[in-house]
Design brief:
By secondary structure, the chain is of the alpha+beta class. It has helices at residues 16-23, 29-41, 93-97, 102-117, 126-134, 154-166, 187-194; strands at residues 10-14, 45-47, 60-65, 74-79, 84-89, 122-125, 145-150, 174-180, 183-186, 200-205, 208-214, 221-226. The protein contains 7 helices and 12 strands.
Length: 228
């Protein structure tokens, strides 16, 4: 069976031998303590930007955004695919807000229902997603809710972005990306681009990013210029 394709904000859970090999590398005391906790609890790493020319034997680029306990460090690793036990996903929005108090979560459940009616699933990455996954103190007072939403076409992206824009929440602020065929655009930037308020929009991929431009007409994409 072919290996599943990688995507942005994908989680990877390592095998026990994989963690042993990670811990056998050179780390400072703080990083080693953090990684040892991750290994003991079987916590995941996240897939990060992959070099366009990276070979399979070079391993998969992964990251670990540590919580306050380890100084909120961001650790970078290269892990062979063979050391991945399985790939996983961040929790759905409903799972995350389901842990909040009833009064706080009520409007968010309404947003979940509206997004479901639109035919999409919103997953939460960032601080709120990591806190759900690890049970550790990733969230701070200023932490946004970062969503990752797969859409099928421009029309669905428009409807989803309009729902997010209309949602009345100042804290936590609602942020995140619309993703189609591995191309991710921040939903606020998508709205501005579709409305013609900006001429280009930043598109992020697993192996880099690019700028997309519009023609004189309102919507068509006519050019893609690599920027990284």
């Amino acid at each position: 069976m072919p290996a599943p394709p990688l995507h942005r904000h994908q989680l990877a859970r390592l095998s026990a031998p994989g963690w042993e090999r990670v811990l056998a590398r050179e780390w400072d005391a703080q990083a080693r303590d953090c990684l040892a906790h991750w290994a003991e609890k079987g916590l995941p790493l996240v897939i990060t930007r992959q070099a366009p020319s990276a070979a399979e034997e070079d391993g998969i680029a992964m990251g670990l955004p540590a919580p306050t306990r380890w100084g909120r460090r961001r650790l970078a690793l290269q892990v062979p695919r063979a050391d991945v036990s399985y790939f996983d996903e961040f929790p759905r929005l409903g799972q995350v807000v389901g842990r909040w108090s009833e009064g706080r979560r009520r409007p968010w459940h309404g947003l979940c229902e509206s997004l479901a009616a639109c035919g999409v699933v919103a997953r939460v990455h960032g601080s709120h997603g990591w806190q759900f996954v690890t049970g550790l103190d990733h969230v701070r007072a200023q932490s946004d809710i970062d969503l990752w939403i797969t859409v099928s076409d421009d029309g669905q992206a428009d409807r989803v972005a309009a729902l997010l824009q209309a949602f009345p929440s100042e804290r936590p602020r609602l942020d995140g990306e619309l993703v189609a065929d591995g191309n991710a655009v921040a939903w606020r930037e998508w709205l501005a681009w579709r409305a013609g308020r900006v001429k280009t929009v930043l598109v992020k991929r697993l192996d880099g990013c690019s700028l997309r431009q519009q023609a004189a007409q309102r919507h068509p994409v006519v050019e893609e210029e690599a920027t990284a």
